[in-house]
Amino acid sequence: GKQNENGVIDILEGWAVCNHCYMAYRTHSKKDDDGKRKNYGLNGIHDHLKQCKSKPKINLTNNQGQNVQTTTSAIQPKFAYNKKVLPEKYILKLKDAELKFVVAGSHSFNSLENDGILKLIYFSGRQSIQEEALSKFDQYTHQIRSSLEESIQQHCVAATADIWTDDLMKRSYLDFTVFFVNDIYELKHTLLRCKHFEEEKSGINIWYEIEKIFQSFNLSFRDTPVATDQGSNMIKALSLTDEARYPCLAHRTNTVLETA
Fold first, then answer.
1. What are the extents of the domains in the chain?
2. What residues pair up with 3 in beta bridges, in sequence order?
3. Span 155-259: which CATH code?
């Protein structure tokens, strides 16, 4: 970044500086008219790191008494930012990027403290990002409740529910998606829950989880039709309180094609 007349560091977005020789390189291409970038993660930075002549060296002695040169900085990132001088808006952007790294990539919070990652860049840390995740979750939940409120009052909400298994990890998940119409008659949808379902897949256990979703987002019981497959446990779950259930056309078509 560059210090302006007010003493504040202005960050140059799209650029990174080598922490050894201070040579600047682009990290991604410029935005087009739609605000999108054509290229992320240009190779210039990584190519430079392999041959930067300004890397400090340390002389070590091996078992044969010979001097061996190696690079320093076991804990100093090659590209780093100073949190103490970074403007607040960029700290928030970095936290958001770290949170997306964890959530979108299904990484653990511990990955933020991995030695290999820390050699490349400073992270806010596991505890900080955990708190950020909870804060974002509460924020998004509140936004979804607000967006659903009018549609619920106008009886314009429907849902789909399904239990599926991850082929790689062999884990079962329950997802629940709602569809609603806004005040200008646009059809919208949002995923309310995708939960690792460890319990027995019985009708009563499925209903307990769906009931929590209804209560959490103020959905109307017996007034929110749900489309599901023909699984006996899912049918049983929604019949416990006489919820409106409709067979899923996509599942039914798939069954017809498989048995044809």
1. 81-148, 155-259
2. 9
3. 3.30.420
Express each pLDDT in 180-221 by its tens digit. Answer: 998 888 999 999 999 999 999 999 999 999 999 999 999 999
Mean pLDDT of 37-43: 57
- Cβ burial of 73 (10 Å; 0-12, 13-18, 19+) is middle
According to DSSP, the residues that pair with 245 across neighbouring strands are 226
Residue ranges of alpha helices (H) inside the chain are: 44-51, 88-104, 115-118, 126-153, 203-216, 232-239, 249-259
Q: Which amino acid is at 196?
A: H
In single-letter form, the type of residue at position 125 comes to G
- Statement: residue 96 has pLDDT above 80: yes
Burial state string for 124-140 with b = 16 or more CB within 10 A and e = fewer than 16? beeeebeebbeeeeeee
